[in-house]
């Protein structure tokens, strides 16, 4: 690899907490750090907060309930309340805890950050860390101003891919034991849907809906979906490709009447590594072509969709799993299935192991059995130590790239858990800056107590 030298402009300001990646975990981390009184900056590659939730249009917060109690509270509750006040959020009577409008979510997160005194720098990519031993002294980013050096006391890597931690030398794992990642998807919004008629049609086809405002329908080959014959016809007619039926799912979007958010298409199996630039680019192209096929199929076969139109492609490819740091604690499948708890817990989870593998691979979706985890009031915990990458003294890594095995990550990766991990990382990072601590110096039991005092269910 060649090295080149380019001018780097040093930003004169110095932050206490710098969050790289303003996504699901990062936005909450920044809000949490700023509320704790730390001078906080969040650097984000795109032009809005919320990451996979907003820019990849993953519009339902997946239900994470145990014994009738939602396990993620604290900042997540405040976020939900703000969304519902604006009619950008809603509770589905039959299932998911919160469905949201991705555009509303962008606004609410941004307002919560600014109200807390935090700052954001959009359209800015992390490039490289500058190290002093195990300490990240600064990061170099790239944006319209060129290469810029940003300095802070403590860094939170919420890039979803552990970009900062890995480039700073932290050990990591990626994919399953063969290196295969979970499948990528490109989501899209379909507008102009007559949801009354679509709802009646789905009822006739064996998928009755709660109401035309709360629709959820699906088809996956060989999983017993009543819609499968329609998809078979679509393939026979050449409107669809076989793989377009690997995963198909639609949801209503609060505050967007006549719009359905699709959790598909799943992308070509060979497009597997969401942390690889060429793959990501090809995934966007592959996804757009598949969306074109799906829309033509929906217009022809689904009543109520005849006059529908593409409202938007998700700006970000939906990436479920890439690099995961190896941290002070590596959360495992056993921890989940045997409901392990920890004194330094920062989050509780009851979402199951949920692995979307490219077609032809085993799909492990553990929802029932005799193990302790399958009791309706069961949960396991995630320790603060799972956010601390080995070998670095002032970096925390919340979100889907926290320290967990492939199977364990598939359970903890859902959005509300990313919120809770982000909230904990933000508070811990603020303490580090204010008390001159390294991340390992934070008392995890005290952190848990402080999160509880802020409303966490811990
Ligand atoms: C298709 C799909 C469907 C899903 N369905 C659900 C669901 O129904 N419910 C649910 O709760 N969860 C669901 N999930 C899981 C969940 O959405 C994600 O695991 C979670 O949002 C990840 O959060 P994160 O903060 O780790 O990463 P992200 O939210 O992706 O945040 C990472 C942020 O970092 C930014 N970034 C990345 N690299 C850089 C860089 N180098 N420089 C600057 N910024 C950078 C990105 O732009 C992004 O904003 C789904 C995921 C996918 C992909």
Number of domains: 2
CATH homologous superfamily assignment of the largest domain: FAD/NAD(P)-binding domain
Give the CATH level 1 class of the largest domain. Answer: Alpha Beta
Radius of gyration: 22 Å
The share of residues in extended strands comes to 15-25%
**pLDDT < 50 runs, ≥5 residues:** none
List the helices and strands and how they pair.
Blueprint: E1 8-20, H1 24-35, E2 40-43, H2 51-55, E3 60-61, E4 65-66, E5 69-70, H3 75-85, E6 89-90, E7 98-100, H4 102-115, E8 119-121, E9 125-132, E10 135-143, E11 146-157, H5 163-167, E12 172-174, E13 188-191, H6 195-204, E14 216-219, H7 228-236, E15 248-252, E16 260-262, H8 277-301, E17 309-313, E18 323-325, H9 333-337, E19 345-349, E20 380-383, E21 395-396, H10 406-412, H11 415-435, H12 444-453
Parallel strand pairs: 1-2, 1-11, 2-8, 11-21
Antiparallel strand pairs: 3-7, 4-5, 6-7, 9-10, 10-11, 12-18, 13-16, 13-17, 14-15, 15-16, 19-20
Helix pairs in contact: 1-4, 1-11
């Amino acid at each position: 690899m060649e090295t080149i030298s380019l001018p780097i402009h040093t930003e004169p300001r110095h932050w206490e907490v710098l969050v790289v990646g303003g996504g699901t975990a990062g936005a909450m981390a920044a809000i949490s750090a700023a509320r704790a009184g730390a001078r906080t900056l969040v650097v984000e590659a795109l032009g809005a907060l919320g990451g996979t939730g907003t820019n990849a249009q993953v519009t339902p917060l997946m239900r994470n309930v145990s014994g009738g109690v939602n396990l993620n509270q604290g900042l997540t509750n405040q976020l939900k309340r703000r969304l519902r006040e604006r009619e950008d959020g809603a509770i589905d009577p039959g299932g998911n805890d919160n469905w949201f409008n991705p555009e509303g979510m962008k606004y609410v997160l941004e307002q919560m950050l600014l109200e807390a005194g935090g700052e954001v720098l959009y359209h800015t990519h992390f490039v490289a860390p500058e190290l002093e031993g195990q300490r990240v002294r600064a990061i170099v980013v790239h944006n319209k101003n060129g290469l810029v050096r940003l300095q802070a006391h403590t860094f939170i890597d919420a890039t979803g891919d552990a970009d900062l931690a890995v480039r700073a030398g932290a050990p990591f794992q990626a994919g399953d034991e063969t290196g295969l990642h979970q499948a990528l998807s490109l989501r899209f919004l379909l507008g102009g849907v007559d949801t009354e008629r679509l709802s009646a049609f789905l009822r006739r086809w064996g998928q009755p809906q709660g109401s035309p405002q709360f629709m959820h329908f699906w088809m996956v080959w060989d999983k017993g979906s009543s819609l499968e014959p329609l998809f078979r016809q679509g393939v026979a007619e050449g409107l669809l490709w076989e793989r377009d039926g690997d995963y198909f799912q639609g949801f209503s979007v609060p505050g967007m009447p006549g719009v359905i958010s699709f959790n598909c298409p799943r992308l070509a199996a060979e497009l597997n590594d969401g942390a690889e630039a060429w793959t990501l680019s090809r995934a966007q192209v592959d996804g757009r072509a598949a969306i074109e096929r799906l829309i033509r199929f929906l217009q022809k076969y689904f009543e109520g969709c005849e006059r529908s139109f593409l409202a938007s492609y998700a700006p970000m490819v939906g990436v479920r799993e890439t690099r995961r740091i190896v941290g002070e604690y590596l959360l495992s499948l056993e921890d989940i299935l045997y409901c392990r708890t920890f004194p330094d817990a920062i989050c509780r989870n009851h979402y199951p192991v949920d692995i979307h593998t490219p077609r032809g691979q085993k799909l492990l979706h553990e929802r029932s059995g005799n193990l302790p985890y399958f009791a309706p009031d069961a949960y396991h915990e995630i320790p603060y130590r799972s956010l601390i990458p080995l070998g670095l003294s002032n970096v925390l890594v919340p979100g889907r790239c926290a320290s967990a095995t492939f199977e364990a990550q598939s359970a903890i990766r859902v959005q509300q858990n990313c919120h809770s991990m982000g909230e904990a990382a933000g508070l811990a990072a603020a303490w580090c800056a204010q008390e001159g601590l390294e991340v390992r110096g934070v008392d995890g039991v005290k952190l848990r107590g402080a999160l509880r005092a802020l409303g966490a269910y811990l």
